[in-house]
Inverse folding.
């Protein structure tokens, strides 16, 4: 630990003996982490010009950092996910969101790599966000929380990584919003990463992406319990609005084919209700998705993080030429992956990233993985994804000289 | 090491150490791996199949999934020293465009083409009256991926048309050793089963280093010399209008 930061609630490098439920035979992962609190003298400088202080970053680690500190892999999480990438979620008890890719013997092998995953700034799982206490008022930030960007998230991660004493990350890996962070890492800290894996993401948010997010935000804000963002003080939660936001967003994570295969026009029970109950299984499924989401996510965090994604346009910050963003990342080895049925971040967006990487003279690999599961495919059972990720990581580990 | 394809060995001789190489249609990356190992090239592949790309990634190669017909347009101009197209030009929808793109992207192109003017082809057509099925082109007409076949003469004409210079040319026939050839030589259009060309843009300055002797000793496996000998360019054949035997 350096720079006068303190890790609070830290179970750093201690063995987690919690058995993982629901996962059957998944081997136990050595995990650590906690909350890193940065002193007021080390504020997070935001793209908006504001500063955030004191900053707290909640993170989890898996595996062991080697003596050379050369085997660290930063996994960046997506919009509504968190630092619990390979261990049970404290609220839901469900297995880690990427426990099919991160763990012993898995593509991101915790027997070989030291995996770090941090909750993003603006999040609601322990890192400073709109639900945190504003030191100036002693009350939750709510809408007084500054607007944050993907760049701010990455800057906070870089502070964490530095404080952990790691100069160069072996890899930065992420899907969806995590993939955006990976690209931002390559643009802002190319000298601090050896390789980068960007899955199902884009270098900027499209009009359609912004449109869907706006629907979600308006749903939250239309809930009378939102109270202009000050719902916590009022002792209420805008659960209905947030659930609707989640339902709409969830559709965009799937594909027409996947919905058809999973539900078709199947009914919940025999016959129609001739009313507005959840007659169709797909309705019931979406309602369940919405209802369970509000248990683990904060409405204001949803507003702030979707905003950060909407503001993301890596090329715009570099004179409108995306390749310029990667000009200094020529030594980084990139792997860009997309899914054929992803209509939220379609393959064309990934190809644009790859073209920019090629134009910048970077070492870039790209594959489009055939899947009908839509955007969420990166979290699901996709053998081609596993094989591709495993191959890339193993080859890069060899190039990095990792045992 | 034993099973290295003869045309790969020839390509290996043409590429100078440390060069930036684009392999179009790199398959599972055998050639790129060979070039990386033997010549320490900075290699990039373009491959249409997902399985091929996955294998390449596992080999530590940088490969982009894409289609040579469509995706070459997006590579920046002169971003490579060599663009390699091994035995796939005849499978392209627009070979003329692909060829000119290769030489926009790279200073030199290494292109291998099966020669439809080879005597076996001519004999098959003349005596059997059927589309040839030979060891170089083994598929029946209805399943062949080769949609734009050409003879040696056709290919050199296209090069002339695109104002490309032929810096070197090698003939491959079956299992026999590769041999240098004059692509405009009268007999070559009969005897070369496959030809490998090293091409460059005619208008350009001559590139710095080109292998001194294409048929010099590049035994495998062997560490390449770092100080490449001073290049000497093969003269392009003068016989621009050489006739065909028939």
């Amino acid at each position: 630990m350096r720079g006068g930061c303190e890790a609070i609630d830290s179970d750093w490098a201690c063995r987690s003996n919690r058995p993982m439920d629901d996962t059957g035979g998944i081997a136990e992962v050595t995990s650590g982490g906690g909350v890193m609190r940065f002193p007021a003298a080390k504020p997070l400088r935001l793209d908006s010009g504001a500063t955030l202080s004191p900053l707290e970053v909640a993170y989890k680690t898996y595996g062991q950092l080697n003596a050379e500190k050369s085997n660290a892999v930063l996994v960046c999480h997506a919009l509504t996910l968190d630092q619990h990438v390979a261990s049970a979620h404290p609220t839901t008890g469900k297995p880690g969101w990427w426990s099919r890719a991160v763990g012993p013997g898995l593509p991101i092998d915790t027997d070989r790599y030291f995996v770090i995953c941090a909750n993003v700034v603006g999040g609601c799982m322990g890192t400073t966000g709109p639900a945190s206490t504003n030191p100036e008022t002693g009350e939750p930030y709510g809408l007084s929380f500054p607007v944050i960007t993907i760049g701010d998230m990455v800057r906070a991660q870089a502070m964490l990584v530095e404080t952990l004493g790691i100069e160069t990350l072996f890899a930065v890996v992420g899907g969806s919003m995590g993939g955006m962070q990976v690209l931002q890492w390559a643009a802002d800290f190319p000298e601090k990463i050896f390789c980068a894996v960007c899955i199902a993401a884009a270098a900027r948010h499209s009009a359609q992406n912004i449109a869907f997010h706006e629907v979600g935000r308006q749903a939250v804000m239309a809930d009378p319990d939102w109270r202009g963002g000050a719902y916590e003080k009022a002792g209420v939660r805008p659960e209905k609005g947030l659930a609707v936001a989640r339902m709409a967003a969830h559709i965009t994570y799937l594909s027409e084919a996947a919905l058809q295969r999973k539900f078709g026009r199947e009914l919940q029970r025999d016959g129609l209700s001739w009313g507005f109950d959840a007659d169709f299984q797909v309705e019931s499924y979406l309602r369940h998705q919405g209802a369970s989401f509000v248990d683990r996510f904060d409405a204001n965090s949803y507003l702030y993080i979707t905003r950060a994604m909407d503001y993301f346009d890596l090329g715009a910050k570099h004179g409108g030429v995306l390749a310029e963003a990667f000009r200094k990342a020529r030594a980084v080895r990139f792997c860009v992956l997309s899914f054929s049925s992803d209509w939220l971040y379609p393959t064309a967006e990934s190809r644009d990233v790859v073209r920019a990487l090629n134009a910048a003279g970077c070492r870039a690999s790209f594959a489009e993985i055939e899947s009908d599961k839509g955007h969420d495919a990166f979290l699901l059972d996709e053998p081609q994804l596993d094989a591709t990720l495993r191959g890339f990581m193993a080859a890069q580990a060899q190039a990095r000289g990792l045992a | 090491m034993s099973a290295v394809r003869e045309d790969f060995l020839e390509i290996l001789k043409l590429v100078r150490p440390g060069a930036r190489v684009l392999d179009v249609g790199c398959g599972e990356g055998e050639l790129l791996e060979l070039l990386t190992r033997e010549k320490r090239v900075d290699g990039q592949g373009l491959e249409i199949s997902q399985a091929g790309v996955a294998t390449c990634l596992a080999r530590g190669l940088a490969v982009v999934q894409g289609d040579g017909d469509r995706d070459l347009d997006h590579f920046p101009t002169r971003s490579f020293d060599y663009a390699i197209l091994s035995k796939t030009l005849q499978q392209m929808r627009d070979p003329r465009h692909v060829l000119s793109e290769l030489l926009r992207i790279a200073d030199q192109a290494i292109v291998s083409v099966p020669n439809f003017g080879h005597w076996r082809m001519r004999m098959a057509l003349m005596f059997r009256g059927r589309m040839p099925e030979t060891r170089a082109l083994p598929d029946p007409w209805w399943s062949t991926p080769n949609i734009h076949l050409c003879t040696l003469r056709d290919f050199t004409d296209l090069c002339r048309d695109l104002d490309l210079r032929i810096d070197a040319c090698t003939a491959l026939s079956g299992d026999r050793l590769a041999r240098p050839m004059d692509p405009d030589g009268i007999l070559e259009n009969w005897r070369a089963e496959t030809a490998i060309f090293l091409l460059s843009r005619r208008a350009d300055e001559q590139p710095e280093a080109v292998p001194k002797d294409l048929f010099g000793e590049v035994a495998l496996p062997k560490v390449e010399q770092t100080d490449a000998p001073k290049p000497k360019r093969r003269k392009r054949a003068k016989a621009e209008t050489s006739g065909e035997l028939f």
Summary: Chain A has a mean pLDDT of 92. The interface with chain B takes residues 333, 335, 351, 354-355, 358-359, 361, 363-370, 384, 387-388, 390-392, 394-396, 398-399 of chain A (CB under 8 Å). Chain A is about 30% helix and 15% strand.
